[in-house]
Design a protein that fits this description.
The mean pLDDT is 84. The chain has one domain. It has a 5-stranded antiparallel sheet with strand order 3-2-1-4-5. The protein is elongated. With 151 residues, it is an alpha+beta fold. The chain is built from 3 helices and 5 strands; from the N terminus they run ββαββααβ.
């Protein structure tokens, strides 16, 4: 289970809205000074807050600090679906167009069309399963103690 800390900002029946601070691991990286992500992090671009709806059976109130959990297998499957599918669509249609003997501009257009088609299918699939309880983050526990920081 992958865990992330956050602060409850709203409460619903059976769920809560949690705000988390997106943090980069760039502070521990040896190439932090020369990396574009590290530079953006120092400028404050990567320090956005993310809001997520999480299932909860705990009695929580806005301002409570919690630990959210997402299954590793769900995260891996989602990453493969969202990142690999559009690339496969791009390559599949580009290779098909090249195999059919189309010129380079049409092969590029076919690749772009394959990317967009796969992206639209992934988007449709994600919207269809957005209310699936098995794919929602859950509140693992409420934190008692010191403040979380500037969340």
């Amino acid at each position: 289970m992958i865990e992330e800390r956050g602060r409850v900002v709203a409460v619903e029946s059976g769920a809560v809205w949690v705000e988390t601070l997106r943090q980069s691991t760039c502070s521990g990286c040896s190439v932090n000074a020369g990396c574009g992500q590290g530079i953006l992090g120092r400028l404050g671009v990567g320090n956005r807050r993310g809001r997520v709806r999480a299932l909860s059976s705990l009695k929580l109130a806005p301002g409570d600090e919690v630990v959210l959990g997402v299954g590793e297998d769900l995260l891996l499957k989602s990453a493969l679906l969202f990142y690999l599918s559009p690339l496969l669509g791009l390559f599949a249609l580009a290779l098909l167009a090249a195999r059919l003997g189309f010129g380079e501009p049409l092969v590029m257009a076919a690749g772009l069309a394959g990317f967009l088609l796969a992206w639209l299918l992934v988007r449709r699939l994600a919207r269809r399963h957005s209310d699936d309880l098995a794919m929602q983050p859950v509140v693992l526990r409420a934190l008692v103690g010191g403040p979380l920081g500037p969340v």
